[in-house]
Specification:
Elements: H1 2-28, H2 40-44, H3 55-68, E1 72-79, E2 85-91, H4 94-97, H5 100-108, H6 110-113, E3 120-126, H7 134-148, H8 152-160, E4 161-166, H9 171-183, H10 224-236, E5 240-247, E6 253-255, H11 269-288, E7 317-324, E8 330-333, E9 336-339, H12 340-360, H13 362-373, E10 386-393, H14 398-410, E11 416-418, E12 422-424, E13 427-429, E14 434-438, H15 444-450, H16 470-473, E15 477-485, E16 489-490, E17 507-510, H17 517-526, E18 532-534, E19 538-542, E20 545-549, E21 554-557, H18 565-579, E22 583-586, E23 593-594, E24 602-604, E25 610-614, H19 620-634, E26 639-642, E27 656-659, H20 669-680, E28 684-688, H21 690-697, E29 705-706, H22 708-712, H23 725-731, E30 737-743, E31 757-762, E32 767-768, E33 777-788, H24 793-799, E34 803-810, E35 813-818, H25 832-840
Parallel strand pairs: 3-4, 3-5, 5-7, 25-26, 25-27, 27-28, 28-35
Antiparallel strand pairs: 1-2, 2-4, 6-7, 8-9, 10-14, 10-15, 11-14, 11-16, 12-13, 17-21, 17-22, 18-21, 18-24, 19-20, 19-23, 29-32, 30-31, 30-33, 33-34, 34-35
C-alpha cells in the first residue's frame, strides 16, 4: 500500500514537472516572459489620481517602463521653455520594435509613394492644456496596460499598429497646475466650486511658460513644445490622432464629430464619415459605463491650428475628446459631483475604444490616407520644366522670408529659392527675400489652408478664429498661379554676404524695415552704444550710386564715447552675420537728399525699461504675447508686475507701462492719477483692447471709444423667431477676422512698414468714435476693412475709415492706444514693427 502511494506521488510529481516544463517552454517563446513592468501605483506609492502628477513623475515613469519592457521605447521631442523634457511612449510588438527604423522609413514615404504595407500608427495625445490633468493620468494607466496585457485584442493591436502615447503636451503648465491643486487639496475632498483648489491663481495652468495656448499653435509653431509635437507628427505620419481635453465642470463628455456645418470646407467628406464610424466605439464604451455624453454640438472642426484638426489637413483622422473637469479632486456640478478618478477612467475608456476602433478600421484608415495624398505630389520631370505656384516676397526683408521658410519646412511644405531677381505683376522679387512655392506637392492641402482667404461662410459661428492667412500675418507679397522654369529655382538658400566697409566710414546705417533691426537695436543699447534714428527720409552716395533710406533708419556713429571705431566695427560685423542684417557704411555725414547724418532730425534712442501689468483682470494670452515678444524676440529685460502690487511701484523707474487687453476691474482710479505725472515726465503708456475702456473710464484716455453696447445697436433682431437666436448672436461676435489698416506713413508709429496698408487680426468689437486731432491718428481701418474671415456687414460699415491706432501726447510722454492686438499669437510679424516703434521711437518724438 505504501509502495503504491509512493509510486503515485512520484508519478504525480513527474507529471507536474512535465507540465511546468511545457508551460515554461510556451512562455519562453513569449518575449515578455520573466518581465516585470512597474505599474503606476507601484511607481508612485499611492493610487493613481490620489495626487495630481508632476511632469517629472510622468517622465520618470515612462523611462522606467521603457527600460523594463521590450514593447516600449521612447521618443524625445525636445524641451519646454522651462527645460522640461517632452517624451512620447512608442508601444508596439517586440517584433515591430526591432524594425522601427524600417517602419519609420516607410512612414516617411507615405506622402509620396502611398505605401501602406506597414502597421497603422495611432497617436493618443493628452493634456495640452496643463490644467486638464485627467488625460495625463489615463495615459500612464494605458501605457502600462499595453505594455503588459496578453489579451488577444492587445497582442493583435500591437502586431498591426504602433501606438504613440504623449501624456503631457504642456509640461510647464501641468506643473503650475498640479502645484496649485495639490497645495490646496485637503485630507477630506472639498467639492465646493468656490474652494481655492478649484480656483486657480493668475495665470492658470492652461497655458505654457509664455502664457500661450499651445492648442492654438499647431500652425504657427511659435513655441518649442509645438515644434517638437509637429515634428513627431510628420516623422510618424499617423493615421489616427486622439486629442484628449477637459471642459467646464457642468458638462458631461464630448467626442467628435463636431457641428457638421462648421467643418472646414478643405476637410474631405471621407474624413467626417470615418469620424462618425469611429464614434460608435466611444458610444459603446461610455454607454457601458453609463456615462452621459454628447456629440455634434459646441465644438467644431474648422481652425487647423488645433490638435484635433491639424491631422485633418494632413492625411489623418483627428478626434477631440472633452471630459468634464474637476479641476482638483472633486467638484459639484449641475450633473452631480465630478470626481477626478472617474474622469481618469472615462479618458482611459475612450482611449481603449479609440485603439479598438482604429484597429477595426485599419484598412479604411490606410485607404483614406493613401487617397488624401494621391495625385498631389509630382517630382519635376524634364518634359515638364515649368511649375505653377505662389511667388512670395517679403519686400527686401531677408529675415522675414527666413521665418516663413522655417515655418514651411516644419510643415514639410516644399519651396524653392530664386536664382535671379524676377518681376511679376508689377512687383519685384529679389533673390534674398523671395521664394517660390509649387502648388502641386504632397502638402498642397495644408498649403491652401495656410493661405485661405475666404470671407463667405454657411455658419458664422466659430470656436476659434475664422481665418489665419499667412499672407496677411507676415505682410507678404504673394502672386498666385505663377509659372516658373525650373532653371530659375534652387533648393539652396542664397548665402548672406557679410558687409564690408572702408576704414574711412563715419557711421553705419541699418534699414529699419528689416525684421531683426529692432533686436539689433536692443543689443546695441544693452552694450551702451549710442544709436540714433532718422525722423525723416534721406539718401546717401555709395559706390557712385544713390541709396535711399526711409524714416526710421538707424545710425550708429563710429565716433562716440566709450567705444572705439574698431570695437564698433567688430561688434556690428558680428551682429550683421548673426542676424543676417544688412548694414551700410557711409564715409560722409552729408546726404544727397533729405536730412544729413548730423541733423537734429536724427534722434537719439534712449534705453528702455518696460513694465507689463499682469494678474487677475488682464488677458493671460495677450500678456504672454507681449512678454514673449519683449523677452524672446527683442531680448529686453522686462518687468511683470501683478495688478495688486502696482500701488507699491515707483513708475518713474520705468520707460513704458504696458497694458494688454482685459477688464482691469481690480484697478482703481488712483493708478490712473499716477500715470499723469509718469507721462508728463516722458513715460509712454501702451494700451490695447479692453485696457482702453478702463483708461477712458478713468479719464486718462481722451479719445472717445465705441464698445460692444454701441455696436450691438447696429443689429436688428426684429421679427426673428426663437430658433434664430443662436445664429443672430453669432453674427454679433467677432471671433477673429483679418482687417486692413491704412497707415499715415509719416507717423513714427509706422516707420519700417513697407507699403501704406497693413493687415491685423480683429477679435473684439471695439473702436474709436473720433480723434482729438488728425495728427494723433497713426492708422485707420480702410473703407472696405475685411480682408479674410467672417465679420458681419454691420461691423464692416461701422469700422470703415475710423481710427485704429492713436497716439495722444502727454507732456513729454504719450499714450499709444491700440484697438487690436498687434502681436496676435506672436505670428503677426507684419505688425510687430508698430510695437517696436512705440518702444524706441515714440519717446524721442514726444
Amino acid at each position: 500500500m505504501l509502495k503504491t502511494a509512493v509510486t503515485f506521488v512520484l508519478v504525480f510529481l513527474m507529471l507536474l514537472s512535465v507540465s511546468a516544463e511545457a508551460k515554461k517552454t510556451r512562455l519562453t517563446d513569449n518575449p515578455l516572459y520573466g518581465v516585470t513592468t512597474t505599474s503606476p501605483e507601484e511607481f508612485l506609492g499611492y493610487p493613481l489620481g490620489q495626487h495630481l502628477l508632476r511632469h517629472d513623475q510622468v517622465n520618470y515613469y515612462l523611462k522606467e517602463i521603457a527600460q523594463q519592457n521590450p514593447r516600449v521605447s521612447l521618443e524625445n521631442t525636445g524641451s519646454s521653455h522651462e527645460g522640461r523634457q517632452q517624451l512620447t511612449a512608442v508601444i508596439t510588438s517586440v517584433n515591430n520594435q526591432q524594425q522601427l527604423d524600417k517602419i519609420l522609413q516607410q512612414r516617411q514615404q507615405v506622402k509620396y509613394l502611398g505605401d501602406q504595407s506597414g502597421p497603422i500608427v495611432i497617436w493618443l495625445a493628452y493634456s495640452i492644456h496643463g490644467d486638464e490633468a485627467s488625460g495625463a493620468h489615463a495615459a500612464l494607466k494605458l501605457s502600462h496596460m499595453l505594455a503588459t496585457s496578453e489579451d488577444k485584442w492587445v497582442t493583435n493591436l500591437l502586431e498591426n499598429a504602433v501606438v504613440l502615447i504623449t501624456p503631457s503636451q504642456n509640461p510647464d503648465g501641468m506643473d503650475r497646475f498640479s502645484t496649485w491643486a495639490n497645495g490646496y487639496a485637503g485630507k477630506v475632498a472639498v467639492s465646493d466650486p468656490n474652494h481655492k483648489e478649484h480656483k486657480q491663481g493668475w495665470p492658470s495652468g492652461r497655458s505654457n511658460h509664455y502664457l500661450a495656448d499651445l492648442n492654438r499653435d499647431w500652425l504657427f509653431l511659435r513655441h518649442p513644445e509645438s515644434q517638437g509635437r509637429v515634428a513627431l507628427f510628420h516623422r510618424w505620419q499617423p493615421h489616427y490622432v486622439g486629442d484628449f481635453h477637459e471642459m467646464g465642470h457642468n458638462q458631461t463628455y464630448f467626442f467628435q464629430p463636431g457641428v457638421p456645418e462648421r467643418t472646414h470646407p478643405l476637410t474631405p467628406a471621407a474624413n467626417q464619415k470615418l469620424t462618425i464610424k469611429l464614434a460608435a466605439y466611444y458610444q459603446a464604451v461610455l454607454d457601458d459605463k453609463k456615462q452621459s455624453y454628447f456629440s455634434r454640438q459646441l465644438f467644431d472642426d474648422f481652425f487647423y491650428g488645433k490638435g484635433s484638426t491639424y491631422p485633418d489637413i494632413n492625411g489623418a483622422i483627428g478626434v477631440l475628446f472633452e471630459q468634464a473637469s474637476a479641476r482638483g479632486q472633486q467638484q459639484d456640478s449641475s450633473n452631480g459631483i465630478v470626481r477626478f478618478n472617474e474622469a481618469i477612467d472615462n479618458q482611459y475608456a475612450t482611449s481603449i475604444s479609440s485603439l479598438k476602433g482604429a484597429l477595426a478600421l485599419k484598412s479604411e484608415l490606410q485607404d483614406y490616407q493613401t487617397e488624401f495624398f494621391s495625385n498631389k505630389h509630382q517630382k519635376p520631370k524634364k518634359k515638364k520644366p515649368r511649375q505653377s505656384g505662389r511667388l512670395i516676397s517679403t519686400a527686401n526683408d531677408n529675415q522675414r522670408i527666413k521665418q516663413l521658410t522655417a515655418l514651411l519646412s516644419q510643415h514639410h511644405i516644399e519651396y524653392y529659392y530664386l536664382t535671379n531677381p524676377l518681376t511679376q505683376g508689377g512687383g519685384s522679387f529679389e533673390v534674398d527675400s523671395s521664394i517660390f512655392v509649387p502648388d502641386h506637392q504632397a502638402q498642397s492641402s495644408l498649403l491652401t489652408a495656410l493661405f485661405d482667404n475666404r470671407t463667405e461662410f454657411n455658419d458664422p459661428t466659430f470656436y476659434d478664429v475664422s481665418t489665419w492667412n499667412l499672407q496677411h500675418a507676415l505682410n507678404l507679397t504673394v502672386r498666385q498661379n505663377v509659372k516658373l522654369e525650373l532653371s530659375v529655382l534652387s533648393q539652396t538658400a542664397p548665402q548672406f554676404k557679410q558687409p564690408k566697409w572702408s576704414p574711412k566710414a563715419v557711421a553705419l546705417l541699418i534699414d529699419w524695415r528689416q525684421q531683426q533691426a529692432a533686436a539689433a537695436l536692443q543689443r546695441l543699447l544693452s552694450h551702451g552704444v549710442q544709436v540714433k534714428f532718422a525722423a525723416k527720409p534721406f539718401a546717401i552716395k555709395s559706390n557712385n550710386s544713390q541709396l535711399d533710406f526711409p524714416a526710421g533708419t538707424l545710425q550708429i556713429p563710429l565716433k562716440q564715447d566709450g567705444h572705439s571705431a574698431n570695437d564698433l566695427n567688430k561688434m556690428l560685423l558680428k551682429l550683421s552675420q548673426e542676424m543676417q542684417l544688412e548694414i551700410t557704411a557711409t564715409n560722409s555725414s552729408s546726404s544727397v537728399s533729405g536730412i544729413d547724418l548730423g541733423s537734429p532730425d536724427f534722434k537719439v534712442v534712449r534705453p528702455i525699461k518696460p513694465l507689463i501689468i499682469s494678474g487677475k483682470g488682464t488677458s493671460i494670452p495677450e500678456v504672454g504675447q507681449i512678454w514673449y515678444y519683449m523677452d524672446s524676440q527683442l531680448k529686453v529685460p522686462t518687468t511683470l508686475v501683478d495688478i495688486n502690487n502696482l500701488s507699491t511701484i515707483k513708475l518713474s523707474n520705468y520707460s513704458h507701462i504696458i497694458l494688454a487687453g482685459g477688464s482691469y476691474s481690480g484697478l482703481d482710479e488712483k493708478f490712473a492719477r499716477k500715470l499723469a505725472p509718469f507721462t508728463a515726465d516722458g513715460g509712454i503708456v501702451i494700451a490695447q483692447k479692453g485696457a482702453l475702456a478702463w483708461l477712458n473710464k478713468a479719464n486718462f484716455l481722451k479719445t472717445s471709444l465705441r464698445g460692444e453696447r454701441f455696436y450691438k445697436q447696429l443689429f436688428n433682431g426684429a421679427g426673428l423667431t426663437f430658433d434664430k437666436k443662436s445664429s443672430f448672436s453669432a453674427r454679433q461676435e467677432i471671433g477673429g477676422a483679418i482687417v486692413e489698416l491704412k497707415l499715415d506713413k509719416s507717423h513714427p508709429m509706422n516707420f519700417g512698414i513697407s507699403g501704406n496698408r497693413l493687415a491685423v487680426m480683429k477679435n473684439k468689437a471695439l473702436g474709436f468714435a473720433q480723434a482729438t486731432n488728425d495728427f494723433s491718428v497713426a492708422a485707420s481701418y480702410s473703407s472696405q476693412p475685411l480682408l479674410s474671415g467672417y465679420m458681419a456687414q454691420e461691423y464692416q460699415s461701422s469700422f470703415a475709415n475710423s481710427p485704429a491706432v492713436i497716439v495722444e501726447s502727454r507732456g513729454k510722454g504719450a499714450v499709444v492706444a491700440l484697438t487690436d492686438n498687434l502681436l496676435f499669437r506672436n505670428i503677426w510679424l507684419g505688425s510687430e514693427k508698430l510695437y517696436a516703434n512705440a518702444l524706441y521711437f515714440i519717446p524721442a518724438l514726444h
